[in-house]
Design goal:
There is one protein chain. By secondary structure, the chain is an alpha+beta fold. The protein contains three helices and ten strands. β4 and β5 form a beta hairpin.
Length: 155
C-alpha cells in the first residue's frame, strides 16, 4: 500500500515523541533537593570561607549518577562515600556527604530533612561528627562581636 509523504512524517513524529518521552523518563531524577557543594574541602566538615563560596543548586540523584550543576558524578566512578551526621539543633542533625571519585573529593551539605543517601545503589559509611571551626570562621565571629561591642560602647 502506498503511504503519502505526510504519513511518513506522522509516523516519524510519533516515534520521535516516544523516544523523547523514554529519554525523559530515563533521565528523570529519583531524588532532588537544594544543597551547597564544595570540592575544596576534605575530611571532617568545618565552617569556613570555602562554604561561603560553595556552589549552590539542586542535588539530583539519577539511576546512574549524581549531579549538581555541571558536576556529573557517575556511580561507577565513586570510590568511597561518607555521610557525616552533624547536630544542628537539639532535635535534628544535618548531614555532609563526602564523595571521592577519580581522586577528586566533593562535599555536599544537606538540611536535616534531606535524605539523598537512601537513594544510592552503593554503601555509604555513616559517621557522627561535630562541625569544626576554621580560622576564617573564628576571625569573622570575633570581628562581628568586636563591632557589636563598639556599637554598644558608643551609645
Amino acid at each position: 500500500m502506498f503511504l503519502r509523504p505526510y504519513a511518513y512524517r506522522a509516523v516519524s513524529t510519533t516515534m520521535a515523541a516516544r523516544i523523547l518521552l523514554l529519554d525523559e523518563i530515563m533521565d528523570k531524577p529519583l531524588y532532588r533537593c537544594m544543597t551547597k557543594g564544595s570540592d575544596w574541602e576534605r575530611g571532617t566538615p568545618q565552617s569556613g570561607a570555602n562554604w561561603v563560596l560553595a556552589r549552590r543548586g539542586f542535588f539530583k540523584v539519577f539511576a546512574d549518577r549524581i549531579e549538581l550543576g555541571d558536576w556529573r558524578i557517575p556511580f561507577s566512578e565513586i570510590e568511597r562515600a561518607i555521610e557525616y551526621r552533624i547536630p544542628c539543633f537539639y532535635f535534628a542533625k544535618s548531614s555532609v556527604l563526602e564523595i571521592e571519585a577519580k581522586g577528586r573529593i566533593y562535599q555536599f551539605g544537606f538540611n536535616p530533612w534531606a535524605r539523598p543517601v537512601k537513594h544510592f545503589p552503593f554503601a555509604v559509611e555513616q559517621q557522627q561528627a561535630k562541625l569544626g571551626w576554621s580560622t576564617f570562621s573564628v576571625l569573622l565571629r570575633l570581628a562581628i562581636l568586636a563591632y557589636l561591642g563598639y556599637l554598644l560602647w558608643n551609645q
